[in-house]
């Protein structure tokens, strides 16, 4: 009943609403704290109890059951609230009678009485919904005070200041919460008194002032609300209860629920609790704590307290709090009790608790307990510790750590306090797409060469800022701490490269006007930043700050994380592979736990500075011999690439995708050529310069332009690429195949274990595969014959257009493995060009709620997923046990990984920096798989 | 058994091969012409009989059964052939014995004897496969002649010339066919004799020459084949039979079968027929005829004959033939007999026959009959006539007319003879994509304005030749007889407009180098054509001819065609609608039989010259008010468009698609702007002209360029278009909706019956439809309220991306009808951009056989069709009886229409000029639907 509580919140949306039953007069609307067993019977489960009584109340009752020191009290149910709201603000029949009985019981237990001047009962009246909505609803403290009772309390405690301070607080809260009187006149009045006394703090006001303040407060109430502050305690309670009910539909609460995805029909409960006071002297105090350190995860109480103070004072921050460790020295008995209770609570809830307590004249009272929020770092350590202490199982520990917790360890992070401060002072100058997490600080540079120069020669930290990046910017990106682009989407060149290398990056920052010529950029707010100015970015949130914002650097070798992931590995069924193009990526990914390479994009190698000219010449070759010459130059380079990969992945599978992008991506920029031509033409016409020289240059440019133009496509995404290219220019893929097999032979000779998997991209018919595979096998056989060796290899294909999925049985005829290329599959299934859409209508769709999620970030299970399921079914129908993976960006996304698990894939492949995240997500998928949650 | 013969050929591929059974010695390998009933028993069906005995033999046997005068003879089966080939050239056991028996029988029947000098039996030995392979296999005539028999024959006929002419023919044919002696030495020898005698024709050579020739021929045989010409008649027959068998695997026959799609394992039969001679004097002759006129379809014998000649002479064309009508005068008895036989054959085969006959001394012999090939015009008339004569049913008449026959009536056509002649003389200068059928002749012009000017002012016929066309070229296209572009695919702008208006057009003629500046174009062969030169194009074949090629103009109001289509309408289930943007298209389509508009592309109206500037200003508007102003200008124009359509389609459904293409299609050309900017920048730098003026112009151009650039997309096909645009710029579709409903109200007031169907394009999620429909309905309600009227209207969507089909149930929630946009659906399902691919890798794929058919011409049933089936199923699952159509180019393609019928669509919508074709194809689909042919 009490395990797996972390998940309850997630299932909020599925919960059946607690509907009011206003006609049934015998409905139990009020439960005292010691009636939790009755509530359990009524509500059926712990989840039901929380729904009925609210989280706060349910936990107070639970603590009462555990015989922990909770002040007596009772709860009015959410059912009562819903009935009240449904009836347009009418308390349901029988409720008030039950409240009166509960008050009477409270009087019996405490020996105090409402309105009794000799021994008055004071209570708090607080909202308490099923899910915590911090600060979103209302509270009234000190109910029960009136002129006489306040005087009596002063006598009883011998502390007039205390009594009238409590009274004026009641009047103030009552006025604002119940009667909607604005807060301002009260504050102004207090301010006047403080000024008069020359003090900073209300606590320093003498009793007589507080008495006078209270009287004036009551006048303010009467002026604004046109009725007096009620002197009757029960009337105070009745109106406060109704105000709490009403607060459920307040704008603040409504907006919060909308943002947090909490249903609007849950209603709030009302908690009525006998007041205890931490401000009754040096043996009193109040505090908040977590049962362990929720920042670091260390096993020690963490929190703050104040001597002789009320709870609000801790929160308000008007007095400096003491660390909880001090409690042992100052109040050793209370400290011991607190630690005992913390242990009991952790044992009971099997989770670290966030508690509130008050010490009234030496006696410790528990006012709240709930599961504690925590940092990513703490989440990991707490999960591991609790499992080792056998409080929870290892499965549960794995479940409790969220993928974003793991991600945290992989990148530098902005210091949370520094981030808030930067936001507050207006340093947040723009926001874009959060495509590659981590924080980065550096000086702005506006081109790749400058980035490299500043970083390597001048030893500066730089942020590369560009309208967009191109393959020849990669050296600058690698030299930079982070990258910002004003254009491009989640899968733009910048985004892909950034994720590949774990470079913190924000793209599509459309509000930045970048002026490369003038080496500056202008923000939407009109601020101008120049080259060399400092910039801080958060690739995890998409924020861009002017100036330097402090960062913290977590560590992926954190022993707790390592242990937790090793547990995750035990539970998952999905393999976790990586997308890696270079040996250095492969090594990193392997360190992160990758079990193979699911995608090596061979064309990335073509963009390297020393190769691009050869590649261009090869593409533009006018004859087969000329092309063969250039390919011969590329062969040893590609071979060396593969040797490096095979070495790095010794013993693990390496999937190599043959060239995929359209050839014009490698060619010079068409616009620039056109500009150059027009300029030359104009100069020639105006006779500016030597005509012969101009003409010669013009001829050369025109020739190049014509070649580029001939390869230009309307929709390159749907053009001559992938296997189409392999069929169109067979000598190119032959070279690649030769490089693979020659590399394999060289490695095999050195005892490296390998099994290259050759992946043919973008097939939409089985004939393409048939033809291409035959060609490649011919080349492979030729190489093996030359080398007099045998090495195993496999052919497979990417399923990345709908037709391939729809005819997967025919495709499987020629493919020994499948890998879903879900980036392209999403583009073609939706008919959406991600490059254009992500900074365009797609963000409009997300904003307008037409799409719930960006389908390029989280797999669209309904459409794309359906095709994947068809593909898996047909593929395995033709070829039993066909190995199937995914190598789109979705391979690193937890929700998509869960789908891949359910769809029966064998592995996911993601960028190196997502590997640890994927390991955890895959374990979650397997653990959740026991019940089908589709 | 004998009906529906037209279809047998189609099913060749499905036929089980007749496998040889060489071990079974009791296999019957030889059938005499009067044994057809035995063959029927053995083969089981008429199709089987043709398979076993070959088409020619089966028909000869069939005529024998009909007691028509067929020379006696027998057939060696295809089984024997297959056994022979399978055994590596060994005659199967028992075959030869059966041949000998058949020869003996032949001798009995004819009273002649092989090798008998007094009364010799001569036979022909001919191949005869199941399907006619004209000229592809071999024939040996006059078998049975040798030195003695020839002398005997000379005595017997009293015609030495005849006897030795027959003998030398045997030697010559035997040598080339059986012994593979080259033909050249024989021809050379004859040539020598002709020269010596000073004659042109072998027939003029005297007997003594032919005797000498024969002798020399035999020497040539011996020299080349190293063995003598055999004197034994049976040996001649044996070797000739084996040669015919072998010819089945000859290169010529193999290539022909490959091209014609005839299976290679059918084998050929051998027909051995007693010779009859048409060259025995003035009472002899030979001829070919069709039982009706297969050019016009008129009910009269049509053909040619020669008096005193052999069959070869008719075919060789060395003597001028006489029209068959002359036969009545020259040989009235034979003519009467021929007409009687023609009637019997038509009655028997229920089809017009193509026959060969010989008259030997007054007696008519039938040598061949087969179904006659015919022109499109004749096909239609023959089908109608035969049905009216009750020879065939109306269903059968509809089946017999092929869609391309109907298409013929819609467009001018090249005269076949003139086309051949033009090809022969090298006038065929290029070939491109045949995107809009019909022939056109005109003078070349290189721009749209010139086209209009020449055509309208100078009253010239022009062909517009452009690298590609853009919306502002339409006036030139409409003024031209035909259009040629060097770029663009089957669905390029030029192709779409051309089909829309029935303009004969060839696009993607990549071999033409068009030089607009110099007003000329260069062919691959180096020929240069200048503006004003004459050009002839055939949009049905994609051929481009230099000069004028004669055309013929058929007529769509041909009464036979009208009647046939009215029968077709009775049989079809599919509705036939049309894609029409303008009232004039709608009217034409309605005349052609369209039953509704399935697609009106509203954006085409935006391209009209008077509207484009308003549209551009609207798109570039900087504020909502500014945009509203431009939209207000467009509203009355759009309203008028719709009024026109509703009037034209009174009583029929009109489907109006809201704006679909990306907005940048309406904007000025980006390249030109960039050029202008660069030029201005250069001039400014070089101080060429007034700096202030240049700067002002530069600013204006830059501003426009920036706007165009901001709307530019990497892959516009997958970009901001369709419903995405409607959501992004709601005021635009609101204007369109207002125009539709206002037009509907105006028409309804005039008593026009209408039901506008508003079609929302490119939805990939149901939310898009939900949101867009709500917006449009709001506008519609507002208009109806203003007008105080009610008119019915419906909302539907195009299913044109895979996801829409996959979630069709959700889509149907908001769509009251579906229309499959199979152009885009094919693009997205394959991941192929048709614009780029059709002149690129797609043609490579078709050429290499990777794709069997262009999926943009004929629907890909396996992939795209699968999605359509899913869409139909899910759509109707959600909304019972949901109306579903297709409006892609495939809606006019017969094979695709057949699929649409089977998939359960309600209608197809195609361009006006395809409507009659679609009506017939839909009837075919329904008639074929009785058996499922999938």
Total of helices of chain A: 39
Reported for the largest beta sheet of chain A, the result is: 8 strands, mixed
Uncertain segments of chain A are 1-22
Placed side by side, the strands forming the largest sheet of chain A appear as 12-22-21-14-15-16-17-13
Give your account of this protein's structure.
2 copies of one chain form a homodimer. Chain A is of the alpha/beta class and 934 residues long. Chain A has 39 helices and 31 strands. In chain A, the strands form 6 sheets. In chain A, strands 12-22-21-14-15-16-17-13 form an 8-stranded mixed β-sheet. The first copy, chain A, has an 8-stranded parallel barrel with strand order 24-25-26-27-28-29-30-31, surrounded by 6 helices. In chain A, strands 1-2-5-3-4 form a 5-stranded antiparallel β-sheet, with helices on both faces. In chain A, helix 21 links the parallel strand 16 and strand 17. In chain A, helix 8 packs antiparallel against helix 9 and helix 16 crosses helix 22. The relative contact order of chain A is 0.06. The N terminus of chain A is likely disordered. The interface between A and B is large, with 58 and 58 residues.
